[in-house]
Specification:
Blueprint: E1 2-4, E2 7-8, E3 19-21, E4 24-31, E5 36-48, E6 53-62, E7 68-70, E8 75-76, E9 81-83, E10 85-87, H1 97-100, E11 110-112, E12 116-118, H2 124-139
Parallel strand pairs: 1-3, 2-4, 3-5, 4-5, 5-6, 5-7, 6-8, 6-9, 7-12
Antiparallel strand pairs: 10-11
């Protein structure tokens, strides 16, 4: 494992051929063979497949109730956030009142739609530019 200026809570879960640089991995984070994690924050139970690149800065994966799984040969662009949970909008407030006021465990105020599985993803910014360019050509 190539670990460069990073904090990794469970380094035994990182494949020996993977690279983690300038990142913080909190929780049960598995990183597959030949994958690279660069300038990212990850919290919870997360699996990163083989030959996958997750680029930062400003890239974060967060889960509380259900794991996040990223497949093999994925490429995730900087500035991407994947969050498995959200505020519970059915409640009176989205403030973390259960946790902050009533001393409930962190996560008592959030809801989840279940497991998050990303099979294949390429950098979002180039895709958006391609779609806009295609739309302009079609409108002429």
């Amino acid at each position: 494992m190539n670990l460069i200026e990073s904090k990794v809570r469970r380094p035994e879960l990182i494949d020996t051929s993977a690279t983690v640089q300038y990142s913080e991995l909190r929780g049960k984070i598995e990183v597959g063979a030949r994958s690279m994690i660069h300038q990212c924050l990850m919290e919870g139970e997360i699996q990163i497949g083989r030959n996958t690149t997750v680029n930062g800065p400003d890239t974060g994966f967060y889960c509380l109730n259900n794991p996040i799984k990223v497949g093999n040969f994925c490429s995730i662009a900087r500035g991407t956030t994947i969050q498995e949970y959200n505020h519970d909008f059915k409640k009176t407030t989205t403030y973390f009142i259960q946790h902050k006021i009533f001393n409930q465990p962190y996560g008592a105020d959030v809801v989840s739609k279940g497991r998050f599985k990303l099979v294949m993803m390429f950098g979002l910014q180039p895709v958006v530019r391609f779609c806009l360019a295609l739309k302009l050509v079609m409108e002429r």
